[in-house]
Design brief:
Layout lengths: L2 H19 L4 E2 H8 L9 H14 L3 E4 L6 E6 L6 H13 L7 H12 L4 H8 L18 H12 L2 E8 L5 E14 L2 E8 L4 E6 L3 E9 L13 E7 L1 H4 L8 E8 L5 E7 L2 H9 L5 E5 L1 H18 L14
Antiparallel strand pairs: 1-3, 2-3, 4-5, 4-8, 5-6, 6-7, 9-11, 9-12, 10-11
Helix pairs in contact: 1-3, 1-5, 4-6
Amino acid sequence: MPAETGLTRSILRWSALIAALRDGPLARPDLLARLGDAYPRSASARPMVDRDIRQLALLGIAIEISRSRPPVYTLRGGAPALDTAGLRALALIRDTFGDWHPQSAQVRALLDQLAAGLRPEQLAEYARRQSSRAPLQPAIDYTPHAATIARLELAISRREIISFDYTNARGQRAAHQAEPYEIEYYERHFYLVAYHAATRQLLDYRVDRVAEIATVQTLPEHLSRAHERRPIVFRYRLAADLARGEISRRFEKQRVVERLPSGDAIVEAEGRSDFFIVQTLLRYRANAELLAPGWLREKMAEEVRALAGIYIVPAGNRPDEDIQD
């Protein structure tokens, strides 16, 4: 998952860890059972818990681990030991998660817990408006889909093959079966990345269009996650005005392969899907031309023709021609 989603998962794990120990000490087996689906149900959960405890210690939240067997975990609390940089980082997290983010409520609840122990001068610094922000506000309100995301995360942690109904962009609903790998946030939407056995590809499914999730099979660890996405390698021409200096890295493994006399650049890159490549290049408008491969160039041409059909109308049918002085 991208950094944003990784940060979200860390915050949710920390919140679950604090909540599990709030009522008193717990031996490791009891703690892991209390944590439920916040951590993977495998041997990797133990080092992950210990790593998160070290991270919480940096925030001034002490969890003591006994030397007994099994070890006992005790929440000792403590006021967050944050300097100015730490407080600003905490405020940046606060301002990053918009109201439409599906985990915004959980993130804010944890931040409120951390802020409750701040001194007045720390609170003033934490409340100060940040001069630099990078809000993660999805294109639609994803809070109603938080349960879907939680169910998909559970399927990923359990290595399940799932069935689900999916409604595509044309409103057509169909049944799918796939092995979910991760949930990614890009283009202001959350996507389920899953291996589709019928096509033998990793495909992206917009989470808000996924419904009726059911478990088909649980895979043993050695059989799951054995597939990799096959990226699309393509080339495009970027206009001279945008090719000067460092080119924005909108794609993976992007490199300039040729500089034309006009100042234009020929760029080679990799993209996750034909849809992603076409939609990203359209943002450049006439400043970018998709060159190869040919089949992808034709998809771009189809998209451009569709746009032309909307905006280019025959003379006499233009709305402004009906307006009289």
